[in-house]
Amino acid sequence: MPEAANSFSSQEGEEGLPLEEMAYRRLREALVTGAILPGDRLSIRAVAAAFSVSAMPVRTALRRLAAEQALDLLPSGTAVVPRLTRAGFTELSAIRARLEPLAVSLAAPHLGEGHWNTLAPLVAAHDAARAAGDAAAAQAADRDFLFGIYRAAQAPLLLGLIETLWLRRGPLFRSVRITVTAAGGLRHSHGAMLEALRGGKGDEAAELLRAEIEDATRAILATVRFEGDDTAAERLAWIGKSGRQR
């Protein structure tokens, strides 16, 4: 498994943070954005060197992320980014399809002009990134749009649960980049969601998001290989067996 130590960048608002919180936030961001991949190893020494800190804050940050089930810890203290199985991804997506629309419904009464001024440009930024084939920028705009709504729900427990789900799905992102940017690939309904929310139709916006998550799940399941999927040799053996039975 490759060791990831150069996939981290500083974040806004880090000034004055304890070192363990800084390390935690950088690692969390790298996971959510797919900067580190399933199977990558994060040794305490390598991450500490990348962050120019001692081992202790890194060890604490890795333990926090392991407690959130975003990383698996080895006895040595090295963390490994989990590889999602097909069943695991299906379960994660089913939970997202319930919790995230709930956040939209709860947010609807709290949204106002200031939110519209922030959310509308993110819809345009997402569309522009898609047109340019920039999957990373499209993902960033998508996340900022959705979490801009989720935070307005004023439901911190729900927000924390959703953030944990995104931590688990983030490392898979590089596997779906082609699907995201391809013609006819993963489409979003954010423009329609924004229009519904402007009109006070929170339940309609929530339903649009639920359908979007379920459509994306089907597309990813159809195009991405997951941990535990059968191998090419196994598929060829099955094809040969099938042919002999005809």
Strand order of the largest sheet: 1-3-2
**Topology as a string of helices (H) and strands (E):** HEHHEEHHHHHHHH
Q: Give the terminus-to-terminus CA distance.
A: 42 Å
Helix content percent band: 55-70%
Which structural class best describes the helix and strand composition?
mainly alpha
- Quaternary assembly: single chain
Number of helices: 11
* Total strand segments: 3
Shape, please?
globular
Strand fraction equals under 5%
Please summarize the sheet with the most strands: 3 strands, antiparallel
Rounded to the nearest angstrom, the radius of gyration is 20 Å
Which spans of ≥5 residues are poorly predicted at pLDDT below 50?
none
Which key phrases capture this entry?
246 residues; mainly alpha; 3-stranded antiparallel β-sheet; 11 helices; 3 strands; 65% helix
